[in-house]
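Provenance and format

Records in this collection were gathered into a single text stream. Each protein contributes a sequence line and a token line. The two records reproduced below are adjacent in the stream.
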Amino acid sequence: MSDTLQAEYPVKVTNLDKVLWPEAGVTKAEYIQYMIHMSRYMLPHYNDRLLTVIRFPNGIHDKSFYQKNIPDGAPEWLKTHPVYSEDSHREIDYLIANNTATLLWLANQAAMELHPSYAKIQNLDQPTNIAFDLDPTVKGVDIAGFKKAARVALLLKAALDDLGLPSYPKTSGATGLQIFIPIAPGYTFEDTRLITQFLAQYITQKAPDICTLERFKKDRGDKVYFDYLQHWKNKTLSGPYTPRAVASAAVSAPLSWDELREGVTPDLFTIRTMPKRIEEVGDLFAPMSSRGVEIRDILHFIKYHPTGKL
């Protein structure tokens, strides 16, 4: 089965009846329709950012692979940005998702997880945000683990409020939580690392019973891993509204802090429920697309309080 959809460019779509999420019964056609509906909300968060994707050509339970370099035979109209890779000693042509047609093409490629860079291509050494990744030490999608991550997130929220920093939470789409802060231009990853490490140390000292900085899963017990290292050059987190390769066809959903306090769970936000939700509440991550806050005073504070104490 094939058809042609019109966006900014014609996008040929194929195998529309292929089931990508078997438990939820979500087909490629539904995924493409999701992208059509969500593109105007997604694009502000992906524009001019290097994109890493995970493709699942035959659904979430079959083989998958990461893709950074644009594949051979891709349409000429796709926008790319070359970046030299020190690891592979070659130039990688990253895809840039700047229009609806690109999102539809990605959906047809069964690129089911989208991971944009923290920095924009205009200056890849300067992130536009600070991100904290809270990762429960559980297998699969575990609601108890998510609720524990929510407890840690609310402690982080209180600390960020004390520092005068706005913060925006979202589900990872699986069990974790991610907290973002939009920052003004001119700061480096070295600057943001000072903040992420300081707050990670502070929160783990405040709640050592539920939070850890231990990188090895075998040594974490059932604690939430406060991953401050994930916010760095060439690393990524799942982007807003991207689907995830989980049975429920959950997506990475921006939340309000009130929802976290009230006990919301990640399984509520799926390819099938998110379009209606965003019509009702709008893009809760919209502030991430505007100019962020200055962090100069916070950096000065941390340099004189390096032990993780507010």
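Adjacent record:
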Amino acid sequence: MSTRAKKKLRLEDRVMSTIKRRPGVVILRSELTKLGGRSQLTRVLATLVAARKLVRVGHGIYAKTKLNKFTGTLMPAAAFESIAAEAFAKIGITVGPGVLAGEYNSGRSTQIPMMPVVTTGRRRITRKIQVGSKRVIYERAGGKDE
């Protein structure tokens, strides 16, 4: 095995041990910058995603996986909504429940919202937060009239 391959394996091992020690489910690539360069970390994280040890949630955002005891397959370690909430908190974006979720939570509606919609206030956000086929949809509150 070449020296370069050994260094890559060591970096992958260091990244995995760091990820396992971190609290929470969401990992940002920027949290791992002390371990190596940006492109090195991107390659290692892509390798971990291919090995299904991590799930890519968005640009530079990853989530831990766990073994599903019923199917024996790896799946995200938390529900999509909690992964999205933790990701927004870590990147510093303040979001709230969407209009439909707000109506359901306050008791004004009995319809359970099926789509993960969040309101961003007047802020415009284009960042994709997605796990599998589930994706966060943004609502902007306010406008010229409000």
